[in-house]
Structures are given as C-alpha cells and as structure tokens.
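User:
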Amino acid sequence: MVGSFLSSVVCALYTVTSTRLGFTMLRLAQGLVAPLSAVAGMVIMADFSGREKGRLAGVVNQWGSIGMVLGPGVGGGVMQFLGVRCAFWLSSLAVLVGGLVVYFALPRRGSPASVPTAAAAVRGMAARLTWRVYLLGTVNLIDFVAFQAWILLLTIELQARGFAEGLIGTMLTVQCVAYAAAQGFCGRLADRRKGLHAVAIAQFLYGFLVLLLPGVAVPWKLALAMVGLGFASAPTWTGVFVEVSHQATGLTGRAMGLLNGTIGLGNGAGPLLGGLLGSISLQAGFLATSGLLWTNAVLAVLYVVRRHRSRFQKRPTIEGDPDEEAR
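Assistant: Predicted structure:
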C-alpha cells in the first residue's frame, strides 16, 4: 500500500514539474519506489495463492500484457483530448486505486507465510538463498536481456527496410497478444512442477526464431514469427516465479526482491547490449541474442536434472525392496 501511495504521488508531481533537474529527480524517485509495490505484490502472490501459484502468476502476467497493449493507445487518447497533465493525474489515480483494491481484497485470516516470528526473523538474518534461487534469477535476467535486445534490433532492422512505424508497432502488439494468450497454459504447467521443462524447450525454440528474424521480409510471415516469439517467451516468468516460491521457503521476500532486481537489470541492460551489438552488425546482434536464449535453455535443463537427482537421493527406502536387499 505504501508503494502504491508513493508511486501515485510521483505521478501527480509530474504535473507541476517543469525543470530538467525536477524531471530527473522524479525519474529517480519513480525508480526507487516502484520496486516497493512490485516486490510486495510478488510476495503476496507467493503467500496467498496456495497450490495455484502458477495459475495466479499467469493471470497477473496476462492482464499485465493486455495493459501493455492497451496502455499506449489509452494514454495517447487521453493526452490528445484531455491534455498531458490529465494523463498523469489519471495514472496517479489508477495506481492508488489499484493499491487500495489489493490491500482491502487480501484475506484477513492468518498471516502471510513470508512474515516470520521474531525468533524466525533472527534466524533468517543469517540465512542464505540457495544456489537454485540464484540460478533461477539468472534465467530470468537472461530472458529479459534477450527480449529487450532483439526488440531493439528488430526495430532497427525493420526501419532500415522501410517498414512503416505503424506496421512495426502492430508486429510488437501481435507478439504481446500471443504472449498473453499462452499464460493460462504456462501457469497450469508451472503448478504441475513442469514449468522449467517448458522453459528449457521454449527457450531453445525461441533462440531459433530470433535467429530467423533478419531473413523475414514479408509482413504476414513476420506476423507468424511474432506469434511464435510470443508463445516461446511465455513460459519463463511464470515457471521461474513458481520455482522460486518453492525454493525460497522462509525467505520469500528476499527471493522476490532478487527476482524483481533481475527484471530491472535485464530491462536496462538489454537495450544497451542490443545497441552495442547493433552498431557492429545486426546479424551479430541477433546471433548473440540467440546464444543467450540457448544458454538459458541449458541452465533450465541443468536445474531440472539437479532437482530430479535431489528427489531421487531423498527418496525413502522401502522396506522389503528387493533392490535394497540385493545391495
């Protein structure tokens, strides 16, 4: 709730700011307060969703994608007919109302699993996240870096071919819609602990699709490629979120903070990487991005293999098992 309130205030302050220093400080403040709501929301999802973490994450991701599709059009319409300041006030109100809805909609019975007792909190100070959580964070980081990189490279490529800006925007919208449409299925897979299996397969195919992008010149073929990219990129966030929720027992807040940090870092590093590689060669940029996605596929396979091996090693011995007697 605090994060929503502060984000709402920052949005409102844009309407009274007119200096370069003021806008710079507001952007800095926005970057500092946004994770408060984001991390809190992720912890709430992990704590209150029970056995349906994947389905809830899929729904949240789905609506977030729909918002990304509708947001630019709605914002542009508001600015055109009601003015820029009205758009900021509307954003401020939307953030505040969203925080209030979530706050009052939360169940009041019991307490979140991530809120420890005093003794548990003291023990948690010395606790460390497992290597599995850091591996999952790395997968999420690479996924966001690769996404931002190929989006930038594709935009440069299409502009160089003379594609109209409207067509480029339509292609990105097609990818976003396909991504949203796949979230329900990805959530169900994650709840069955098959999320990382899907990530491994999807990231492998994702890399090939990105590698093929420079050779696609016909708009309808490009639209098909964007649908494939939407489906291929869909399983990662949901699968990683659910696995982190399972692996970070007692340290949910810290784990979700790490996960949110990888999102911010990936969104910042992706365009930088894409720009640096694109200045050398667009083909090299697409190839490097594909390499990142294939690396992610390997990391996902490694995680699945180690998880299955750990389960096998912890499996209790069955009395009278002929294999055990033979040993």
